[in-house]
Amino acid sequence: MIVPMIKKILLVLLALFNIIALFNAWTLRQVNVLFVEKIRTGNYVIAVDHLPLTDHDKISWFNDNKQMLQSHYAISMEDFEKITIMEAVDGVKRVNSRWVDDYYCFNSIDSDYRCVDKNLQVNIARAQDGTLTFYIHSIGGIYVQGVDGSMQKSNYEYYFDDLDERLGETLNRWLFR
Fold first, then answer.
1. Cβ–Cβ under 8 Å, residues 8 and 1
2. How far is Cα 32 from Cα 84, in angstroms, rounded to an integer?
3. Confidence (pTM)
4. What is the pLDDT of residues 78-112, one digit of tens each?
5. How buried is residue 13: exposed, middle or buried, by Cβ count under 10 Å (0-12/13-18/19+)?
6. What does each C-alpha distance from 31 to 49, 81, 82, 92, 177 come to in angstroms?
């Protein structure tokens, strides 16, 4: 009677260990930047192959890679207005007029393979005082990072107030390129 219970406990512990190991392996993978495009002065779109799973790790990835984004892709970290990070989970797609509404295509890339799925993950907005607001789209939240690096999670109370405006702005950018 005790032996079957011990086997069940060991199986549960083994399954839990495997889940934690897979989660750790996923979050430790290096994030690769696929494309970066300057939409207009101060506004950029970044496509990556994947992002870490947690909100904290997504924000940490951006903060840890500011210097790389500035030196390799000429994104000015001192005066950008908005950065949108998309996750190209299914990889880079070929330009195809039949499916163009499902993709975001980078016009600055001189190749037929320059589109990614419109999978928004993070929007980063910079205020005039230098604070950064991170809008995490995958069930995440809104985080405000002060100039001193302090982080505060904002509540959802006002998240939907300007949703129509934000969606309209995003759709206009994609549809009327």
1. no
2. 15
3. 0.72
4. 889 999 999 887 788 877 655 556 778 888 888 88
5. exposed
6. 6, 23, 20, 15, 28
